[in-house]
Design goal:
Elements lengths: L1 E4 L2 E5 L26 E6 L11 E3 L2 H8 L5 E8 L2 E8 L10 E4 L3 E4 L1 E2 L3 E2 L5 E8 L10 E6 L8 E5 L9 H53 L4 H12 L15 E5 L9 E7 L2 E6 L2 E5 L6 E12 L7 E5 L2 E2 L1 E6 L5 E6 L5 E2 L2 E6 L5 H4 L10 E10 L2
Antiparallel strand pairs: 1-2, 1-3, 3-4, 5-6, 6-11, 7-8, 7-12, 9-11, 10-11, 12-13, 14-25, 15-16, 16-25, 17-24, 18-22, 18-23, 18-25, 19-20, 19-24, 21-22
Helix pairs in contact: 2-3
Length: 389
């Protein structure tokens, strides 16, 4: 006798000869797949065979805890990437796990870990990605030590350590930050020089055009009226020696950074880039992270352009610069198109990660709308970071 859940075998029991009617049998459950709830466990001899008893309904993740005991996921592929500790969790028995992780940094500081929604494994169980945002103060002279914990388990699931290996490496983080600032300053200076060259080229072209017009007028005046040739010559000289105009309203160079749908700045919580008649976009799950291309510059605001929604007639979003909550203003555009304007309440502030939390969303497969099993909330086409410096 076998137990099946959505076509995946989750337990079996070898039956002897001469089973009496109404006999009580204990069938152990070895694992549960990652499936939408509620789900049914069928008792049958084959996946598509007749049922030997009425199916049993799993109503929530707490049932998996009663059947399988505490989950012990394995955390793999730990690595540092763009100031974040990333990794993958594998839980081969409990596919209904809703993982909650926290980290203890350098043995004293506790911090929450961002965890994506689990995805199913073919043989049952689930896998999930996670990321821990690190601060510059986390790196001490002795390096960095991180222990990843799950509530209910005394021992940590994984440990990560980074220590200096060469003399003088204590100031490496400060040196890297300084090099980043110098690189950004060099890019800004290059953009300023290019813009100045373009303006001067346009001014020179305008002067050449004005000189040609004045010369043509002078020639025409000489042909038609000898008395007007002196006035035409004076007008030509005045045009050629006019002072350079002062551009008081010159555009702010490098004042914005734009992320398109295929940009690597879309971090955890985003599905892959897609295309439709309106262009590229990315669907967000219920939570999403966006990396600021220039995290050391003060950000005056962020503009999100939204092309599609799921689960709500208008965007219901909470946002924050790193751990600092921000103000969110919704601006309707065309049909089902919106703009979100996100601003820090106390004025411009540096931002490494823009955190987004959707208050509405869902899965089209669970809602019976389509076969898409992904969790969706908003589809973003473009993100614009406005800098204050």
């Amino acid at each position: 006798m076998h137990a099946w859940c959505r076509g995946i075998e989750v337990g079996h029991l070898a039956l002897g000869q001469g089973i009496a009617a109404e006999a009580m049998l204990d069938l152990p459950i070895d694992r549960l797949p990652c499936v939408p709830l509620p789900a049914l466990i069928r008792l049958a001899t084959a996946s598509e065979g007749p049922e030997l008893a009425a199916p049993w309904t799993i109503t929530g993740p707490e049932v998996a805890l009663a059947l399988l005991g505490p989950a012990m996921p394995v955390l793999e592929d730990l690595r540092l990437d763009h100031g974040m500790l990333r990794g993958t969790g594998i839980e081969r028995r409990n596919g209904l796990l809703r993982p909650v992780l926290h980290a203890v940094i350098n043995g004293t500081l506790a911090r929450a870990v961002q965890v994506e929604a689990p995805v199913p494994l073919a043989e049952g169980g689930c896998a999930f990605r996670f990321a821990l945002a690190l601060e510059a103060t986390d790196l001490t002279g002795n390096g960095l030590r991180i222990a990843l914990h799950m509530p209910g388990l005394e021992a940590p699931l994984a440990r990560f350590a980074w220590a200096p290996a060469l003399p003088g490496q204590d100031g490496m983080a400060a040196l890297e930050a300084r090099l980043l600032r110098l690189e950004q300053a060099g890019e800004t200076a290059l953009a300023t020089l290019q813009a100045s060259f373009d303006r001067r080229f346009e001014q020179q072209q305008d002067r050449i055009d004005a000189f040609i017009d004045a010369a043509a007028s002078l020639l025409l005046d000489r042909l038609t009226s000898p008395e007007g040739s002196a006035a035409a010559l004076r007008a030509l000289i005045a045009t050629a020696t006019s002072p350079e105009p002062v551009l008081s309203d010159a555009p702010a160079l490098g004042a914005q950074a734009v992320l398109t749908a295929r940009d690597a700045g879309f971090d955890l919580g985003w599905h892959g880039a897609e295309e439709d008649a309106g262009g590229g976009f990315r669907w967000m799950t219920l939570q999403g992270l966006l990396r600021n291309p220039a995290p050391l510059r003060p950000v005056a605001g962020v503009l999100l352009e939204i092309a599609h929604l799921y689960g709500a007639p208008a965007p219901l979003i909470e946002a924050g610069f790193d751990a600092k909550p921000c103000l969110v203003a919704v601006e309707p555009q065309a049909t089902h198109h919106y703009r979100l304007r996100i601003t820090p309440p106390g004025g411009a502030a540096p931002c490494r990660l823009l955190r987004l939390q959707a208050l509405a969303g869902g899965s089209p497969a669970e809602d019976g709308v389509s076969g898409d099993a992904r969790v969706l909330s908003i589809a973003v086409t473009r993100v614009v970071f406005d800098y204050a410096d």
